[in-house]
Amino acid sequence: MRAIFLDRDGVINENRADYVTSWKEFRLLQGSLEALALLTRCGYRIFIVTNQACINRGLVERTTVDAIHLRLAQIALNHGARISDVRLCPHRPDENCRCRKPQPGMLLDLAHQYDIDLDHATFIGDTLSDVAAGRAVGCQTVLVRSGRGAEQCRMLTDDTPQPDYIAADLLTASRWLCGRRETVLTPC
Ligand SMILES: [Mg+2]
Ligand SMILES: [Zn+2]
């Protein structure tokens, strides 16, 4: 089983300056449903891994966030895409939990539950925290330029975690992962 971990905000849906606290604020990025369907068709199991400190900051109920994810999974299914599971970290940074990215807790939990071979898994995210979490468990990492990605790309130095590849967006990364040879990812 090939597993793919996806960050949510800035990868699947638009990143907001504050937080997504309702379905109304959850805006899918162009091409992301197509990407999820492509990954599903070419045999990847899809896991979403997202930091949602807005929950413990008291800005949104956990049940509301779960409902957003249920709705996303349903829409994805209608487009031929299967999301196997969604993991979220509800903690604020000051809580120093083991799951808030760049910590790899959510990836480790998923790997344990679904028997995922992390050496052959890929993490796609739009921030260096995503890259760090993926690298911490030995995943291949792809930084997308959507969401905060373009800004994060400019912050890359020898001291920051290095993604294995940089892609324009989730659809480009997915085409490449699914072997579309006309798609080229930039090595760092
Ligand atoms: Mg993000
Ligand atoms: Zn956490």
Folded structure, characterized:
This protein is α/β, with parallel strands linked by helices. Strand 1, helix 1 and strand 2 form a beta-alpha-beta unit. The chain has six helices and seven strands, in the order βαβαβαβαβαβαβ. It has one domain: 3-Layer(aba) Sandwich (Rossmann fold). The two termini are 27 Å apart. It is 32% helix and 18% strand. The chain binds magnesium ion and zinc ion. Zinc ion (ZN) binds next to loops.
Care to give the gist of this entry?
The protein is an alpha/beta fold and 188 residues long.
Strand content of the residues, in percent? 15-25%
For the record, what CATH class applies? Answer: Alpha Beta
Give the class from helix and strand content and strand pairing: alpha/beta
Distance between the termini: 27 Å
User: Averaging pLDDT over every residue, what do you get?
Assistant: 96
For the sheet with most strands, the description reads: 7 strands, mixed
Total DSSP E strands: 7
The ligands found in this model are:
magnesium ion, zinc ion
CATH architecture: 3-Layer(aba) Sandwich
CATH superfamily: HAD superfamily/HAD-like
Radius of gyration: 15 Å
Shape: globular
Task: Describe this protein with a few key phrases.
binds zinc ion; 7-stranded mixed sheet; Rossmann fold; alpha/beta; 188 residues
Strand and helix layout:
Layout: E1 2-6, H1 32-41, E2 44-51, H2 62-78, E3 83-89, H3 105-114, E4 122-125, H4 128-136, E5 140-144, H5 149-154, E6 165-167, H6 170-177, E7 186-187
Parallel strand pairs: 1-2, 1-4, 2-3, 4-5, 5-6
Antiparallel strand pairs: 6-7
Helix pairs in contact: 1-6
The protein binds magnesium ion and zinc ion.
